[in-house]
Design brief:
Elements (H helix, E strand, L loop, with lengths): L2 E6 L3 H16 L5 E7 L3 E3 L13 E3 L1 H6 L2 E12 L4 E6 L4 E5 L2 E4 L3 E3 L7 H4 L6 H13 L11 E5 L3 H18 L6 E6 L13 H11 L1 E5 L3 E5 L2 E4 L4 E3 L2 E4 L3 E3 L16 E2 L12 E3 L4 E2 L13 H20 L12 E5 L5 E5 L4 E5 H15 L7 H7 L8
Parallel strand pairs: 1-2, 1-8, 2-5, 8-19, 10-11, 10-16, 11-12, 18-20
Antiparallel strand pairs: 3-4, 5-6, 6-7, 9-17, 13-14, 14-15, 21-22, 22-23
Organism: Pseudomonas fakonensis
Keywords: FAD, Flavoprotein, NAD, Oxidoreductase
Protein name: NAD(P)/FAD-dependent oxidoreductase
């Protein structure tokens, strides 16, 4: 009977975990291990692009790729993990309960937008966290033109001044005008608890964020939090009310709730503490990759962040090392010392930095070209051709 290597999730970390495990098995000529990916759909959803228009097209089908490298795909949603029995319970595509056994498990189930108990948040806000919710926002924006003209109709409020919030806000003036007409006066207001514009992204790129915001007309409300959301806008903690028919929530992320199924240490975002080979600390048969992993990227105190930049490399290492654990061969310790950011700033351009201290390297058009290359080419899966796909899954390949 074949040993079972089960991957939960078909996002960046899950995809590259499966490909990397298949690569190691192929290198050793082993056919006694079955790799299975369990996910709601056999597609890589290009989540870093969900703030853009035409979001319905931002996915890449994976079934042909899985077939090319002998990875079995099971369509379903994981519900629970029994580490003692080495079994995952899930709901299949018909909604029926089912189970999958494993000898090694790679948890790559991603993250989700944190939704605090803000009154009205669930009923009256939008987000760009999943393709379905981003599509709902897009449909709403396109329908605004049918509404009577008003300040609230022409105003978008974005809550959260981190990466996603800034990219969403700086894209909004163009998206609003596309929906309402080029001659319309539009407002985009970004609410951030930080005391200074773009403070969360560092001093190196703050001037670019300020310049882009000024040029695009993005209004920042800093040192503020949202106390409530209603059909007519948001109320801030200091009592101010901002009228808007479009409130977009981007503040905060949490690891998949599946991490809570495991008896082990988690960080404040719910991520699992892993060792240098990405095995979950305290668990013999479970590895973690992507947004569920709290992994040291180097030896000087930096840890992976919730981004495809880290998820791809984490996946390549987790898949390789889970397979190595089954085969009894040496693992490849995870290290990803180079860190870069490329922040899209709408029609103004983009800003590219290197290092954890975010040293500015490219701005405006040059950075925008790089961002477009990253978003439309680099992060997409390889072709569904066995040799090409397996070669691309080598954990020694630098992502950034």
């Amino acid at each position: 009977m074949k040993q079972q290597l089960l991957v939960i999730g078909a996002g960046f970390a899950g995809l590259w975990s499966a490909l990397s495990a298949a690569r190691l098995l192929d290198m050793h000529g082993r056919q006694d291990v079955q790799i299975t990916v369990l996910a709601p759909q056999a597609e890589l959803r290009i989540r870093p692009r969900f703030y853009e228009a035409d979001v319905h097209s931002m996915f890449a089908p994976l079934q042909a790729l899985f077939d090319a490298v002998d990875v079995r795909f099971v369509k379903g949603s994981a519900e629970s993990i029994d580490e003692q029995a080495r079994q995952v319970s899930y709901r299949d595509q018909a909604g029926q309960p089912a189970q999958l056994a494993y000898d090694r498990l790679i948890l790559a189930s991603g993250s989700q937008l944190a939704r605090p108990a803000v009154p009205g948040l669930g009923q009256h806000s939008f987000d760009v966290d999943q393709i379905e919710s981003a599509a709902r926002l897009e449909q709403h924006l396109m329908a605004l033109g049918k509404q009577p003209a008003s300040a609230a109709r022409n105003t978008v409020v974005v809550s959260g001044g981190g990466f996603t919030g800034i990219e969403t806000a700086t894209e909004m003036p163009a998206r609003l005008r596309a929906a309402l007409g080029a001659d319309q006066q539009v407002r985009v207001i970004l609410i951030d608890r930080g005391e200074r514009i773009g403070a969360a992204l560092g001093e190196g790129i703050r001037p670019s964020i300020i310049e882009a915001s000024d040029e695009l007309g993005i209004e920042w409300v800093v040192g503020a939090t949202v106390a409530a959301v209603d059909a007519n806008g948001v109320t801030l903690a200091d009592g101010r009310h901002i009228e808007s028919q479009t409130v977009v929530w981007t503040a905060g992320m949490r690891a998949s709730p599946l991490t809570e199924q495991l008896a082990c240490t988690r960080d404040p975002q719910g991520r699992l503490h892993v060792d240098g080979n990405l095995k979950v600390r305290g668990l013999e048969h479970v590895f973690a990759a992507g947004d569920v992993a709290y992994a040291a990227t180097d030896d000087i105190g930096n840890f992976s962040v919730m981004s495809c930049q880290h998820a791809i490399s984490l996946g390549r290492h987790a898949g390789n090392n889970a397979a190595a654990d089954l085969l009894g061969v040496a693992p490849t310790p995870y290290r990803q010392p180079k860190y870069v950011t490329c922040l899209d700033l709408g029609a103004w351009g983009a800003v590219y930095s290197e290092g954890w201290d975010r040293q500015l390297k490219l701005v405006k058009g040059e950075a925008k070209e790089l961002k477009t290359q990253i978003n439309t080419v680099w992060i997409y899966p390889p072709a569904a051709e066995r040799a090409t796909a397996l070669a691309a899954a080598d954990p020694s390949i630098p992502v950034a």
